[in-house]
């Protein structure tokens, strides 16, 4: 196989290849993030970190459903401060770190962004899209004005590029992406989980303690792909695709829709940490078989055909 370059540049974040883990799927462990990088990812994404420690919801917080997983973790995390040393340690080992975070107010978002930026994160991913917590915590990004304000506040204090991670649980994701762009976002990550629920017929009650949860995995893929498609048409920003990517073919489809990179979460459960290497090797084979020289050549190609 020839030595095609798989490196990508997402708003100044230069990665050896276009794959990352999706935030939170592996919990908070820095050692698991290191394994993601060793498994071949271009960068690692932290669990969403908040301004203070948070325990999340009571179990059950996860259930396997048709085509994926429903989770309602409730953003458990030890607080951003606690994870600063882990970010520094990962970076010291040469692992590019995208720090994902959330807040309950615009001030919180700004403060946590400043902390993570000072910690040396290579990029920040603003989670304005968690469906599993009270509105003010998770879903500021359901509203254009809030999305713009949060993004602008974060940008004010951030040195590295700022990715804004959007929710599919909105009427028009393109409008929200435009608001993030107005606020100064450097890139968009699309998408977080899709709100759903599961009921146990025998016990005659919802399975998750939180009643509703976020759907991830293959069942989310076509929704996520459509979201990336719409966003690419609406804004002039790089897009990171996320939702149901399990193999190289999925990743290529997201790139053809216009994503510059992909995040892979739920697929780690079945395919293990080697999923990143599998995906990059597959993309390389695809580029070569189709006579393309680099990833850039395929980003958004399907848009031109539509
Ligand atoms: C158990 C679990 C925890 C998650 N925690 C977070 C989180 O902390 N922050 C966030 O932005 N997204 C979180 N997500 C959403 C994922 O990052 C991703 O957007 C979603 O799972 C879709 O990708 P996938 O189908 O590849 O898993 C979580 C998803 C799962 C399944």
Secondary-structure topology with pairs:
Blueprint: E1 8-10, E2 13-15, E3 19-21, H1 30-38, E4 44-45, E5 62-65, E6 68-71, H2 80-92, E7 97-101, H3 106-118, E8 123-127, H4 135-138, H5 144-157, E9 162-166, H6 173-182, E10 187-190, E11 194-197, E12 199-200, E13 205-206, E14 212-216, H7 221-234, E15 239-242, H8 248-257, E16 259-264, H9 267-271, H10 275-289, H11 301-305
Parallel strand pairs: 3-16, 4-7, 7-8, 8-9, 9-10, 10-15, 15-16
Antiparallel strand pairs: 1-2, 5-6, 6-14, 11-14, 12-13
Helix pairs in contact: 3-5, 5-6, 6-7, 7-8, 8-10
The structure holds flavin mononucleotide.
CATH architecture: Alpha-Beta Barrel
Rg over CA atoms, rounded to whole Å, is: 18 Å
Number of strand segments: 16
- Find the CATH topology: TIM Barrel
Low-confidence stretches: none
Distance between the termini: 32 Å
Q: How helical, in percent, are the residues? A: 25-40%
| Secondary structure category | alpha/beta
Overall geometry comes to: globular
**Assigned CATH superfamily:** Aldolase class I
Mean pLDDT across the residues is 94
Tally of separate helices: 11
Order of helices and strands: EEEHEEEHEHEHHEHEEEEEHEHEHHH
Domains (count): 1
Beta fraction of the residues? Answer: 15-25%
In short:
With 306 residues, this protein is α/β, with parallel strands linked by helices. It has helices at residues 30-38, 80-92, 106-118, 135-138, 144-157, 173-182, 221-234, 248-257, 267-271, 275-289, 301-305; strands spanning 8-10, 13-15, 19-21, 44-45, 62-65, 68-71, 97-101, 123-127, 162-166, 187-190, 194-197, 199-200, 205-206, 212-216, 239-242, 259-264. It has a single domain (8-58, 74-199, 216-305), classed as Aldolase class I (TIM Barrel, Alpha-Beta Barrel).
């Amino acid at each position: 196989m020839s030595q095609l370059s798989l490196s990508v540049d997402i708003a100044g974040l230069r990665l050896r290849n276009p794959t990352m883990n999706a935030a939170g799927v592996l919990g908070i462990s820095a050692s698991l993030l290191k394994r993601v990088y060793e498994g071949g990812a271009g960068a690692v994404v932290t669990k969403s970190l908040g301004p203070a420690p948070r325990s999340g919801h009571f179990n059950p917080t996860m259930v396997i459903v048709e085509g994926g997983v429903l989770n309602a973790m409730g953003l458990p995390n030890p607080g951003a401060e606690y994870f600063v040393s882990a970010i520094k340690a990962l970076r010291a080992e040469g692992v590019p770190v995208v720090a994902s975070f959330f807040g309950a107010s615009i001030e919180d978002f700004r403060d946590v962004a400043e902390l993570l930026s000072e910690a040396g994160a290579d990029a920040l991913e603003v989670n304005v899209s968690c469906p599993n917590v009270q509105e003010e915590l998770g879903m500021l990004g359901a509203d254009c004005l809030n999305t713009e304000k949060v993004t602008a506040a974060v940008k004010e204090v951030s040195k590295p590029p700022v990715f804004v991670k959007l929710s599919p649980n909105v009427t028009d994701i393109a409008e929200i992406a435009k608001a993030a762009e107005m606020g100064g976002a450097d890139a968009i990550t699309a998408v977080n989980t899709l709100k759903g629920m599961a009921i146990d017929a025998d016990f005659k009650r919802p399975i998750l303690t939180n009643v509703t949860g976020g759907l991830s995995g293959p069942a989310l893929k076509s929704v996520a792909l459509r979201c990336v498609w719409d966003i690419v048409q609406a804004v002039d920003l790089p897009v990171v695709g996320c939702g149901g990517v399990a193999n190289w073919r999925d990743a290529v489809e997201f790139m053809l829709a216009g994503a510059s990179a992909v995040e892979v979460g739920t697929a780690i459960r079945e395919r293990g940490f080697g999923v990143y290497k599998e995906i990059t090797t597959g993309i390389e084979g695809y580029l070569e078989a189709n006579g393309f020289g680099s990833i850039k050549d395929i980003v958004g190609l399907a848009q031109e055909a539509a």
